[in-house]
């Protein structure tokens, strides 16, 4: 399952699932992509289909492994990943080095176990109000689910996860 970033940073007011869907389509990717965020309807840990949570590695756009599987992201260690494996945007840029994302922080709105934090997800990702807060993770920690609280007015990285694996004709 591919983990890919949106092509631009976003404040806490975003239509993230739609953005993930649209940018994946524009990039010529045929699977479905969902935002790597907890929402008012769903905890982050349940975004990927049950059948795909254990057996498929989580990889970057070039197929390099970030996690052994989806469930390993939520084992309580904050989603520790190898920071030497880059995360790319849909248009192929490395979000860890590219200046389009000046703040190397990703929104997630979740606990370390991928459960939604209703007080810290920018009102279900509908506000960029400076007084509202969202849970996010600085990438320099090497964790996708580090527990830091930021104002929703910040423009941070938004990740998308392929949420259904469709084997290709050779798969």
From TrEMBL:
Collagenase NC10/endostatin domain ranges (all copies):
1-166
Pfam families according to UniProt: Endostatin (PF06482)
InterPro entries (alphabetical): C-type_lectin-like/link_sf, Collagenase_NC10/endostatin, CTDL_fold
> Which stretches are annotated as coiled coil?
none
Q: Give the protein's recorded name.
A: COFA1 protein
The organism's taxonomic lineage, starting at the top:
Eukaryota, Metazoa, Chordata, Craniata, Vertebrata
């Amino acid at each position: 399952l591919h983990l890919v970033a949106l092509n631009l940073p976003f404040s806490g007011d975003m239509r993230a699932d739609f953005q993930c869907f649209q940018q994946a389509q524009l990039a010529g990717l045929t699977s479905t992509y969902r935002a790597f965020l907890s929402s008012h309807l769903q905890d982050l840990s349940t975004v990927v289909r049950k059948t795909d949570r254990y057996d498929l590695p989580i990889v970057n756009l070039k197929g390099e492994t970030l996690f052994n599987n989806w469930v390993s992201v939520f084992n309580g260690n904050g989603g520790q990943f190898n920071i030497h494996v880059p995360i790319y945007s849909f248009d192929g840029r490395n979000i860890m080095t590219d200046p389009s994302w000046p703040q190397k922080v990703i929104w997630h709105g979740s606990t370390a176990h991928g459960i939604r934090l209703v007080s810290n997800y920018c009102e279900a990702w509908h506000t960029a109000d400076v007084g509202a807060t969202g849970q996010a993770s600085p990438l320099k920690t090497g964790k996708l689910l580090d527990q830091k609280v930021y104002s929703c007015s910040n423009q941070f990285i938004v990740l998308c996860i392929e949420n259904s694996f469709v084997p290709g004709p050779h798969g």
